[in-house]
Write a structure and sequence with these properties.
Layout: E1 10-13, E2 25-28, H1 34-41, E3 46-49, H2 56-61, H3 63-70, H4 72-82, E4 88-92, H5 103-120, E5 125-129, E6 133-135, H6 145-154, E7 171-173
Helix pairs in contact: 1-4, 3-5, 4-5
Length: about 170
């Protein structure tokens, strides 16, 4: 959508090859490498921060790694923003941050607060999106709910629903 609207887009990713987006200037590097993140942010007006460990069970089982990316990644965005001309950061938070009950929810809340407090001092506008279950092409985590439900439907299996099937969730196709 950004490309179609005429924006120049810079992508930064550690692992996903997106050959289907040749108009994007790509940086293949770790968020924790100083040079590439600063270089990628240079000249940008807006950063859209999507990097996260998003599997709740994985985050609970690996709290140090989850917090390193979900909180530390926000600090890295703060660092790159401070050294650039970025005026707005759009942060992909989570509905789990509104009433955290897991390492994932707490880490997304902490990342959001870190961005908002640090970047306010720089005059940078922060928009945090409280997203729910995002799914779509390229989904790689077979344990997430939408791929699990699709797999169950394709194999005539009975899907397993957590919490006795009594929770309601929003789904966002991207």
């Amino acid at each position: 959508a950004l490309l179609k609207a005429g924006h120049d887009v810079v992508g930064f990713d550690v692992s996903v090859a997106r050959e289907d987006l040749p108009a994007v200037t790509w940086y293949w590097a770790d968020l924790f490498d100083d040079g590439p993140i600063v270089h990628a942010a240079a000249g940008c007006d807006v950063i859209i921060h999507l990097a996260a460990h998003a599997n709740v069970r994985w985050c609970n089982a690996n709290p140090n790694a989850a917090c390193r990316l979900n909180i530390g990644g926000c600090q890295r965005i703060t660092y790159a923003t401070a050294l650039s001309s970025v005026k707005r950061v759009i942060f992909s938070s989570s509905c789990a941050a509104s009433s955290p009950q897991s390492v994932y929810g707490w880490s997304k809340l902490a990342g959001m607060l870190l961005l908002e407090s640090n970047l306010a001092e720089l005059g940078v506008n922060v928009v945090s999106l409280a997203l729910a279950n995002v799914y779509g092409p390229g989904e790689q985590d077979a344990a997430r709910v939408v791929p699990a439900l699709i797999r169950a439907a394709q194999t005539d299996a009975t899907p397993t629903l957590s919490f006795g099937g009594k929770l309601s969730r929003d789904f966002i196709h991207a």
